Amino acid sequence: MLKRKDFLKTTALGLLPFGIPMVPNQTRFTGKKPVVISTWRTGLSANEAAWEVLSKGGYALDAVEAGVKVEEANKDNKTVGIGGYPDREGKVTLDACIMDERGECGSVAFMQNIKHPVSVARKVMEESPHCMLVGEGAKLFALDHGFEEEDLLTPDAEAEWKKWLDQKEYKPKINIENHDTIGMLALDEKGRISGACTTSGAAWKMHGRVGDSPIIGAGLFIDPAIGGAVATGLGEEIIKTAGSHLVVEMMRAGHSPEEACKIATERIIERSSGNSEGVQAAFIALNKEGAYGGYSIVEGFDVSVYNTDGNRAEPVQYLI
Ligand code: ASP
Known about the structure:
Bound molecules: aspartic acid
Strand order of the largest sheet: 6-5-4-8-7-3-13-14
Helix content: 25-40%
């Protein structure tokens, strides 16, 4: 382990531990703008909606909201919005958050019967004195702001839940059952960066469980001067390491978006001291210059990217 004295010595030389050079700004890692990136291959259709906004010179915050709403409305996505798998009691409970280019944020958690939690999160940011509302309070706030109540448990998801009730085993499968959460980051033509994250969380979770996705610093973090990061995967591990905040801080320290994401995945493994079997977590990051990257613990994760080179899913490097 690096001692404080050694750390000060290396940083004084302009080096981070392990000889990585410190770069006070991000100019080393340039990219293109506008650009939108999102988690998983499922992010491709969400990217289309975000690109509609960005390609016309629109606002990054509008782009990420429009983008992730595509998956919130997609009944085939079993981990986001309507159609999401319920908890053990058969309730679909949703978590989402949003952050803008000023570092302002809004979040809702454990909210039921409202299809677009990301838009409620935006209202919390823009029209409430708070950052986060949960449960019944979040729903009442949504209803007060014109959102409509609807049943989010689709017949397909209900049938899967009934099958699950036979065994009642909680064993999330890596990359499959409960990992299509959409996290999105966008940088617009004017250089404004925003992010959003939305999920129905882990399938068959305990009633009341909240994952990383609505937690600022865990599921999403934006630092206007540096860039942003979003996470997907086993929320409990991402919360314990404040994963997205860690990624942004690593970019501030001079790491590329990909290196920063790698450090956050390694931190999860380090923290769990060998008990990480079956854990998938992944991060994507975007800096203020439009450079992006991602990293996952286990193979099978993609970052979906849309810039002037087109829309594509790019597999990321992984630890295991
Ligand atoms: N991170 C989400 C959660 O733990 C799940 C996911 O990304 O699929 O709620």
